[in-house]
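> Could you send the Endonuclease/exonuclease/phosphatase domain-containing protein prediction when you get a chance?

Sure thing. Input:
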Amino acid sequence: MRFGTWNIGSLTGRLVEVVEVMRRRRINILCLQETKWIGNKAREIAPWGYKLWYSGKTRGSNGVGILIDQEYIDDVVDVSRKSDRIMSIKLVIGDEVVTIVSAYAPQAGLDDSTREEFWEDLEEVVQRVPRSEKLIIGGDLNGHVGSSRDGFESIHGGLGYGERNEAGNAILDFALA
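Output:
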């Protein structure tokens, strides 16, 4: 099973492109951010047999989605939409239970309360996943974790680039929790 995440900037008029990228890169499940679509809906993507679940509140901003290829659609047992920035899908694949979360963190220019609310909401979604299940978070978390592992050796692989910023610290703190 192959996963991906993509801040699409806007999904309008781009579904065919997204499916073509998934097929070319053999991605089975793709988390999307900044779809800018309104509603809490599901949509079949014909003729490929893919399915998109999405959540959005305001046209032209935010919005998340999870797009799944035909191989795993029937394995979806639950869809939960927390907000226009966080949603999750639970799959049962054989004897494994996997929860996929698509998340879109607020940009640095937004007020602290908006960013704090996002991290609290994401924490709530993650805490609902039993430790016996697998959890995968795909998202645009709007931060730079940098290349240094200092203080985060247990969770940071050292494969980032540049310097860590404040939002990067929030990402790493979340991963440690």
